[in-house]
Design goal:
Blueprint lengths: L12 H25 L9 H13 L18 H13 L15 H4 L8 H12 L5 E4 L15 E5 L2 E12 L6 E8 L5 E7 L5 E5 L10 E11 L4 E2 L5 H5 L3 H29 L1 E2 L2 E2 L4 H29 L5 H26 L1 H4 L4 H11 L7 H14 L4
């Protein structure tokens, strides 16, 4: 995999064409739309702002592009989807998560299609794919992050339906979602179940979540107080809850990495531009050997992290189960991305410390990934487990 900050994908004509069109949309039409509205990464935006992006991305073929053709997608390989996610992350766009459907769209719903009944597909999931509805995912609780079995949200049988009580946090896309894919413990058992919960149901309250350090307003708390859901809202079977909640774990873990690589690529590109144009001591900052060494280390780290990620995605495409490799990629990408962002701030100096500058926002965002979707410590535990037990577990 050759090193470049602008991959061309000449070996894959379909992907090359998709990346070219995606870059044109991100840098042109979407950039103009965001500028017209004055959006920043810390803006509060509503469905009125997001729906035009969902619809336009769908018209262009990007929204849900990973799905099979029968659902309007192109059945992308994991490697191809990873490449598009990286491009979106590298774009610098505020609404980047709305283009492929990461935030409340098909990338959130696609992995659960196989559990849905015909009625659930028609009522909930196919409208998400068509950019008509949005969903959020509710698994995490204040006392149940990495230890998901510590959740206290409980579903109690009531006739043919269920009464759910509990408090979910960090439900991504919650502020503008229509329904939640919500995981709860079944009362009186050790089983877990997944439910499709309409967020306007009696007993369900959507509340602003605590603002993460990225400053984005894209999370909600979902509070349920004896909220009734009917039998048609049980997704899969009782006992499938954690399988659905943590489904496609290896693939999802690997597919988080390209987005982070894109943000890292953006930080590196901004740093190179700054070093070329910033004048110090009668010459460009880039002329200083200390700066040259820093950017050399940054680029090398990015190349290594990217190579590791795409090797894992290629293994998935070949039908493998790269479990250890997925844990290693998540760990290495998270830690390397943050080191690169830290150096980007250092090289920018005062300009990198100003709240609202892009490199400062990237620093805060990339710091989060060392915790989100499984902390670095959790990844190390899993890697050691794989090394000691291997195929025996």
């Amino acid at each position: 995999m050759p090193f470049t900050l602008t991959p061309t994908y000449d070996e894959n004509p379909r992907l090359r064409e998709l990346v070219t069109r995606l870059r044109d949309y991100l840098d042109g039409e979407l950039a103009d739309y965001e500028a017209k509205l004055g959006l920043t990464h810390e803006s509060r935006y509503t469905r009125d702002v997001l729906e035009p992006v969902w619809r336009r991305s769908r018209e262009l073929g990007f929204y849900g592009i990973h799905l099979p053709p029968e659902h309007g997608g192109q059945g992308l390989s994991f490697t191809e989807l990873g490449a598009l996610k990286e491009e979106v992350g590298a774009s610098g766009r505020v609404l980047q998560l709305s283009v492929l459907g990461d935030m409340g769209g098909p990338l959130r719903a696609g992995s659960i299609l196989r559990y849905a009944t015909r009625e659930q597909l028609d009522r909930y999931l196919l409208p998400v794919i068509r950019a008509e509805r949005a969903c959020c995912f509710s698994l995490t609780e204040t006392g149940a992050g990495s230890d998901v079995r510590a959740m206290t949200t409980t579903a109690t049988p009531d006739g043919e339906g269920w009464r759910i009580t509990g408090h979910k946090v960090f439900s991504s896309a919650g502020p503008f979602a229509d329904f939640s894919v919500l995981i709860a413990r079944v009362a009186g058992s050790d089983a877990y179940a997944a439910f499709l919960v309409d967020l306007d149901s009696p007993g369900c309250t959507v509340r602003d979540a605590e603002t993460p350090m990225s400053g984005q307003h894209i999370e909600s708390d979902i509070i349920l107080d004896d909220c009734y859901v009917g039998p048609g809202q049980l997704l899969g079977e009782v006992g499938d809850g954690l399988r659905i909640g943590l489904g496609r774990v290896t693939a999802n873990r690997l597919l988080h990495c390209p987005t982070v690589l894109g943000l890292t690529r953006r930080a590196l590109a901004l740093t190179l531009d700054f070093a070329r144009t910033r004048e110090v001591f009668g010459g460009p900052l880039a002329a200083l050997q200390s700066i040259q060494h820093k950017v050399a280390d940054m680029a090398t780290g990015y190349y290594a992290a990217r190579s590791m990620t795409y090797d894992g995605l290629a293994a998935l495409d070949a039908g493998g189960r790269p479990r250890a490799e997925a844990f290693m990629s998540k760990l290495f990408v998270a830690e390397t991305a943050f080191r690169i962002a830290d150096e980007a701030v250092q090289i920018h100096g005062k300009a990198g410390l100003v709240r609202g500058s892009e490199v400062e926002w990237l620093f805060r965002s990339l710091r989060m990934f060392r915790v989100l979707t499984g902390s670095s410590e959790i990844q190390k535990n899993a890697i050691a487990h794989q090394l000691f037990l291997g195929d025996r577990n």
